[in-house]
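Quick log. Single chain, no ligands specified.
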Amino acid sequence: MLPKRKLDNKNGELEMRISHLLTVAGVALLPTLASATNTTNFVLKTTQDLYVVCSTASGDPLYNQAINFCAGYLLGIVSYDDAVSDNKHLHRLVCYPPTATRDEGIQIFTDWAASHQQDQDLMNAPPVLGALRGLGSKWPCNQGAGE
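-> predicted structure:
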């Protein structure tokens, strides 16, 4: 067992050293706390906004919120499409297989959006249109078959 040493704290010198050490450590950690996604991205105005949220990196501090927000948004669009297409006169816009998962839907949308980054007309469109275009690119409906 090591002997206990008494710390000499002349005129707050120890507190000042600790304060400087914590400041340096805090500044060093700032780059790791920076987030590619921020809460302003959750106010979806464009397809690009939705893409930023849905493609948030798993190491991002807002990853859980972003991926769940994305999944909820896409699920809401697909659920609405399912509900209104029950009417005789409205056809489905997205015809996903019964085995489709939320993760597949997110991946399909983000792949579509990534491949259309140069098309500002598509990326500046309302997010609901981008989501339908993205999901429909993989899961189109055959309107002639009564979909």
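Confidence is low (pLDDT under 50) at residues 1-9, 14-35.
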